[in-house]
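pinned: reference chain
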Amino acid sequence: MKKFGIIAILAFMMACSTQKKIVDIPIIFDDQRIELTKEYMAQRYGLENDSTQIIPKMVVLHWTSIPSLKKSFAAFNRSTLPNWRPDLVNVSGLNVSSHFLVDQDGTIYRLMPETTMARHTIGLNHCAIGIENVGGTEGLPLTKKQLKANIFLVKYLASKYDIEYVIGHQEYTLFEGHPLWLEVDDGYRTTKTDPGMDFVEKVRRATKKLNFKPVPTK
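pinned: its C-alpha cells
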C-alpha cells in the first residue's frame, strides 16, 4: 500500500509538471470550422466522418515566419482563410492551424485538442499533430528555448499516443505513396523549408530512445 501511494504521488507530480509547461489558449473552433474540417477530410482524404477526430501517428514541426506570438495566434485563430492566402482557399476555405504554438522564450501554448484535425501539413493532417514555432526568419531565428520546448513536447506526445514519426514540414512530400498519405490531388503541393533540418535533427537526436521510424526516402 505504501509503495502504491508513492507511485501515485510521483505520477500526480509528473502530471502537474506537464500541465504547468503547457498553457491553453484555444483558437476559435466554432460550427463553421467544424463543418469545414469535416468537409476537408471528406474532399481531400476521402474520409466520410461525422467527426473531426484523428488518431495521431506523427508529429510535424513548423515555423510560423511571423515575428510575434500575438500575430502568429491571430493567423490561426479565425475559422476561414484570410484573403492573403488565395493559393490555399481554392482548395478549401478552412484556415490553417496547429495544435501547439511555441513562443521564442520556449513557452508552449496549446491551441486546440491534440486529437482534433488541424490544417497544417498536406496529405497528413488526418494523422499528424502540428507544432508551430514563432519566428523562423533570418531576423528572428528559432531559439534554444524553442528547441528544448519541442523536445519536451515530442516526449510528452509520445507518452500519450502511438507516435511513429517526427518530421519537419519540409519532409512531408517524402510520404507520397506511404500508407499514411491520403491527399487525393496529385497537383496540390506547396514548397516548404520549415523548420530547417538542423532543428529537426536535434529534436530527433534528443528523442532517439523513443525509436521513431525513419522518414521514407524517395
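why pinned: The CA atoms of residues 64 and 134 lie 5 Å apart. Strands lie at 22-24, 58-63, 100-102, 108-110, 128-133, 165-168.
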